[in-house]
User: Fold these one by one.
Assistant:
Number 1:
Amino acid sequence: MSVPKTMQDKYDEISAILIPYCDEHLSEEYKELCLKALEKLCRKRPSPLSSGRANTWAAGIVYAIGSNNWIFDRSQDIHMTASELVAPFGLSKNTVASKAAEIKKMLKIGLSNAEWSLPSMMDTNPMIWTVSVDGFLLDARYLPLQLQILCYQKGLIPYVPALKKAEQKANEES
């Protein structure tokens, strides 16, 4: 992805906050998703980043991506409270949560959107795998191969689970 020249300075300013934050508090996966969100916000016409403070946008991006990946759930490897997440930015939880809600709406960030799920959490997010077949909600991971392929071709699931399992088994045997 590329950033429009008119937004490059804003991208640089916000990424200079995001990158060290992710390096210190999160992970490489989080950093990649946060930078992807930043790039998409830069490419919006007009970009919402044109107004507002860089640290508010950075905090909102982290909060949006984090909350979409259960960062507030203590059972996760990387977890923290909302207060812990926003403290390094020097902002209130309410300010950041409000900005995150705005970002989620603009970028269509949601639990069922695989684009905003950490790759390491893809397999454990049931919302990504839920598909409707004749009005029934089903887990695509348990559908027959042909239906998994059809779901993948229609963009309903991020990959074909049965083929991934077969590939993993072949790698283990070799």
Number 2:
Amino acid sequence: MTKKNDILQAATHLLAVKGYKDASVAELARITAVAQGTIFYHYKNKEELFLAILIAFQEDIVAEFTRYRNEHHFASGLQMVEDVIAFYLHMVAQMEDRFMLLHRHDAYELARVNPTCHDCLESIYDCLIDIFEQAIVTGQSDGSIRKVPARRMAMIIFTMVDGLVRFHNYKLYDAGVLYEDVVLSCRTILQNNLPSDQELKDDNKGVAVS
């Protein structure tokens, strides 16, 4: 591992634990046992370092899911969704610091004033939601998943799963207890024996709201 990668890895942990505002380059230099000048040689300021972490995070997510998809066979799109949930939680365990950093509020405070940061965060979430959307589209093609707007449903499922991640990261609740319930809930709202959104809308036409 190069010195630049050492700095990036240590910075990821420091920013995840302390947040963007409270983490300092001086502390990073102490942790990595390098001069601050060496850090500034690779990254001109803390903001550029933070953005480098986000960009690397997105690249690793894409690489990991591409590898996973190429190495696994899915019996159906619905099974793919369920497997993707498990794989997503596996990625969280492997990239715990980066997911913790992603969930910190100060990252979004920076995104309000820094368009590059905003675009990086948006790209990461788009990438994560894309993973679920691809599985849903596959299921709609093979008939295992009902006809619903794939992107919207992917966002709903991602929100449920990401809620478990937040429980895990902040040690608020044993997220593992809810895993089977989340999978069952996803299966229930996706499986093809339920009416489509359009059928539900048609059924509700003319129903008076009291």
Number 3:
Amino acid sequence: MALRVENMLVLDTNILIDIEKNNLAIKDQLKKYILLGAPAITALTYAEFLYGYLSKQKDAVEQALKTLDLYRTLHTTKKSCRLIAELQYELEKKGTPLPLADIVTAAIVLENNATLITRDRDFKRIERLNAVYLE
């Protein structure tokens, strides 16, 4: 039985890499959450994923771009930039900072009222973030 996640799903970079590497365990877990339509990615995930291919042959880079084109890409806005600042401030104040890349991802997910699909449990530090943690 599939668990229903009512809002948009956003894949973290680690999940996108697992899909590309044909990690069957992750792909099987992901099936439980994808009921309608393709999940989205953030612009940061787009950049991180592509970066991993730039040192490879041209064909690999072209394949990475084709993979990225399969996903709707969510970008930062003034609202998400405000969220980035607020999240960074809150986490530093608590003494539990996160890398800026994670904060940007979380802010975009929050702005879009989406659910992040990730293996990175550090996101649990952002209590208001709706996330699913795969293993």
